[in-house]
Amino acid sequence: MKAPIHKSRIEDDIRIRAYYSKYIFNSHFLIFLTIAGGVFLYSLLGMLSAMEPNIYLDIIAALLMSIVLLPKYRSLLKEADVLFLPPYEKYMKTYFSYMNRYSFWLSAYLPITGLIISLLLLRVGHPGWVMVLFVGMSVLLYIFAFLIRRDAVNTPMDRNSVILMLILIHFISLFSILVNPLFILLGLLLIGGLYFLVQKKQHKNLDWPKIIDHEASMKQKYYQYVSMFTNVRLSSKQYKRRKYFDALLKQPPPGRFNKNHMYEYLFRRTFLRDDDLPMIILRLLMIFSIVIIWVDAPVLSVIVLLFALYVIVLQMSQLYTAQAYLLWPKVWPVEREYIQESYIRFSHKVILMIALLLAVIFIFLHPVYFYIAAVFPLWGFALNSYFSKNVYKKERLLSD
């Protein structure tokens, strides 16, 4: 007997997440997470043990929770559903009930992690009963935030506006409790008011196209997150022009319009106009920079930055596999060696610039150990050479 539609779709989504999770949380990344988590916890506890109560810790705790208390709603609807399911809308209460429970727990790990960090911060200067009140209010805000984000999909309200209002209400509600516990009434009034506003604006029937577009957007965001660590087969590749990159895409001189140089230009053009890759690398650089600023230890900073180069090189290798088999070789057929050599030259230049940037950051934080920064370009070159050869090895095995 065929499984109910809600069960099969939840199982499919779990299967996809499990498939990509085994590549994201590989042995290298787990080692990095263990080291980074241990250093973060050790440095945080050491810092808090020497701190006096102050309002800045309360602001940080409230701001952190206001950001992580944003559960995502996943309907798991597909594009074809808009043709077949609307006539059965009133019979789909069971389907949406299961999706509500699945979505509610899907993002629960993030507020739990944020709550642990916030409670560590609130240990400085707050009694236990205030911390319990803070936890209770956080749970209540999480429940209301889920209901509001779910119902707002079926309203004319803009999604980003709803998110900004939730963040603001979360911050005011949690921070006001830390100032005076009696202000809990203010938080309840604000979140309750937004909830009733969303309820009032809901359409009488489901706006199927908007709900399906919302699901497609949520799915694409998940794939963008996964693509920071591994190739994503199911995501739709998109490109867009960023005018501030046009200066890096000047047309090559006539003498370089040949098989030796043209593919390097095409790889550069694809990289700069890729919808995800440049922004993913920028986010990775920001995340790892924040980590090394936080840990403020030379040895750990080196380990973190070496791992950062490893992740970025993995990202760059996707560029070759995504483009070397598509339109270019068909429009301008050349021997594979020319495409491979062009990618090697281009990727080495990009990795060298990123490695030099990381080296500058390291020298700025630890000027006494400036000579260690020389390892970053060498590590980036070795990694990029290895992964490039690995890609070409697979290509040769499949080409006969």
From TrEMBL:
GO terms for cellular component: membrane. It comes from the Bacteria. The chain crosses the membrane at residues 23-43, 55-73, 102-122, 128-148, 160-176, 182-198, 277-295, 301-322, 343-363, 369-387. The keyword Transmembrane applies. Keywords: Membrane, Transmembrane, Transmembrane helix. Coiled coil: none annotated. This is ABC-2 type transport system permease protein. It comes from Lacicoccus alkaliphilus DSM 16010. The lineage of its organism: Bacteria, Bacillati, Bacillota, Bacilli, Bacillales.
